Request: fold
Amino acid sequence: MTQRPKPVPVVNPWARPFWDAAMEDRLTFQKCKDCGANIFYPRIACTECFSDNLDWVNASGKGTIYSYTVVENNSPTAFLGDCPYVVAIVRLDEGPQMLTNIINCDPYSIQCDMPVKVVFEQLNEEFKLPKFQPI
Amino acid sequence: MSNLKGKVAFVGIGEVPTGRHADKAAIYHAIKSAKMAIRDAGINKDEIDYVLPTASLYSPAFNTEMVTCRVVEELGLKNCKKNVQIFSGGSSSSNALLIASTLINQGMARYVLFVHTDRLGTGVNLQQGIDLFSTAGISAEWEVPFGQHYSSIAALATTRYQYETGCTDEEMSAVCVSNRKWAELNPNAFFRKPLTIEEVMSSKMLSTPLRAKQSNMLFDGGAAFVLTSAERARDVADRPVYLLGEGGVVTHFVYSQEKDITRYGWAEAGKTAFEQAGLTPKDIDVAEIYDSYPVYQIIGLEELGFCERGEAGKLFLNGDTWPGGKLPCTTNGGMLSQGHTGAGGAVALMVEAVRQLMGKAGERQVKDARFAVETATGGTYMDSQVTILGTEIP
Reply:
């Protein structure tokens, strides 16, 4: 089967700063200037206090694996050539959770609560995706 | 909700066999199921005044026909006031039940027909189905680019649940075996041959630790039910099935934003529903727990309070949930064995709960079933909906 092009993020305009920062190898999230909440994914207003007063801050890029799976078969068409690949939910040290891929390691060596750090992978000319690797 | 307890009842159910029906159009399953449900209710079709179709996923064009009153016209309903689609993915039946019940209790509606049909077995091929479910309800910005899809979502839940509780692969596989034992007795189920734990555990790995036989498959199917007020129900039905309690919690849209992928909102939704009904899990004769993948059925039983956390797998392994067991669970075989029909997975479970309580479940009838709990969830397990039904009003 011919590999389909990888799906690119369908960007909501207010999330554009996140993707721009990713192109510079920076992982960012929003911080509410009024209540201090750390927010990911990017929102129009603070999910805690409804404030519009949101700032962008750099994340440490470190976190732990909340859960993971090694996709071996029956993936979406665009990913069939990548199997086996790892899908994981990472909890950043600052609190927010995000879906990602764990790369640069043996997929079968991964465990829950394993510490990881961000590494950016070029998707195309417009996007780098934040992925993670074991520390 | 206290004012809805015992005020509304199911008086008729209908369902076509789940399968691959390439020779039949989607509307056929809707009309067949609806006609069966109206006949079962023993009413004249023209007494239906509200029709609530839910969505069909296989074809946006066909779904538009469901939105634009095709069911009403095909059935020739002469006194229908409203046709309104109610859709929340897999929890559509629960949400439609609550909305219909409210309308009936307010005197706005007399007889409400809810109907579902889809053709995910023959209307799309396997890879189209995977691709449909790698985008439907999955964030195009935050998850699709990482290869997320429904198997990986279920696998993420399974990995973390097993990590936290020690539940074994064998226990997880026992859910599939338990559901199959019920499906063997269900003429509307697609998978009816006996299944062993060894067969489940040796089937193709999809996304670790989730295997092919721990995954639902998509089929064609349809189901329907008719609701009316408890007063009218007592006039028309031999054994009306009353809505006793209901609870729901919405927890997320983007799966990776879920704070606890091993619990979701089931505990709170269940507590609300049981309190409204004035019942506890000990009173329940049949538990129709949403499956789609084994981990969700295990989590559902535990969070509703049928057993301690980490213990549900043992109930599936030791036979408590099987036919003849002390906690009959997902007695139509669930999406794992009856088959998954999109929004219909939990429609089938709701119809099965009513069927058991009406005493119409044939070979798999749970003796003297009076009270049932049924669960449903939509999207990527975005909401937890719990319904309690009974033939008596406690």
Summary: The longest helix of chain B spans residues 26-41. The interface with chain A takes residues 127, 130-131, 134, 139-149, 151-152, 155-160, 163, 204-210, 212, 254-257, 259, 261 of chain B (CB under 8 Å). The longest strand of chain B covers residues 220-229. The radius of gyration of chain B is 19 Å.
